[in-house]
Prior knowledge:
Chain A is α+β, with helices and mostly antiparallel strands. In chain A, 30% of the residues lie in helices and 20% in strands.
Amino acid sequence: MNRLIAFLYLWLFALNGIALDLPDHLKSAENLYRTAGGYGCHLCHGLYGHGANQAGGYIRGANQEILKTALIEQPTMKLLNNVLSDKDMELIANYLIYLGEIPIVSLTVDNMAIGIEVDERRDSEKALQLVLFNAGFSEVTLDLSALGLNTLTIAAQATESLIWSPNSQSEIFDPQVINILP
Amino acid sequence: MKKILFFTITLIACFSQADTIDLFKSTSCGCCKLWGDIMEDEGYQVDTFHPQDLDAVKSKWGVPPVLKSCHTAVIDGYVFEGHVPEADIRKFLDNPPDGMIGLSVPGMPALSPGMAPEGAEYENFNVVAFDKDGNMMLFNKY
């Protein structure tokens, strides 16, 4: 069964990293997550709710109740509470719950070194979201071939996201095999 | 003659001291106001605006999208994005690096001015200089 699933992943993703394949009903939620209040939740919580070393931290998996409580109790979020409708909160929560289902691996490329934060669920045979941040001030190119992914160029200070799935080259995600190309 | 020279120098000094900040922010963001308060304490005059479209302001002033934060400040034709410490703004305005149009502290670092609890040391963030083409360099590191 697992082999079948792995095969299906291979077939679906054809050995390429793909962008987060959001269901249609969450696309507007993602947009709201990135624009709420005129600036967006991502500034404090990262583009994918993964924290990204920002003040708000990791919020993947947060439901509507958690969001509502934060909007009432967190001093920095109180003003945002006035501009989000119940429907908006539901949308954002649905997006965060969706992200919470996907194990995440965060990579930070800084000064030709790679820092890695790995979700404890990475050994599962599920697809993973790789979020890659280039903390440097010029673009970097990463060789992801050992993971069965294409070469990826990340602009200075930019964040990229890929979905990695178990494949013929590697069944378990091993971030150590990623190389920075000169 | 000496008197006139002295008067002129004083006048120039007065004008260069009284920096006015145009602060563009969202009505639903509190930390931007705290940053503005800090700048007022430092002697700047802060004029606050609440545009409908903050992104339009950021792109008009050439802030690279990856360096975005909540508020955008304009001083003397230069742009300062997010929670930039006053010391860095002063250093930049006194001697703008070649071709650079402004500074940014991208995102919302917890220990930056306007975000950090009062009296806390600024820590764990970069101040990034950028030019009009989006080229960047590290300006300061906390």
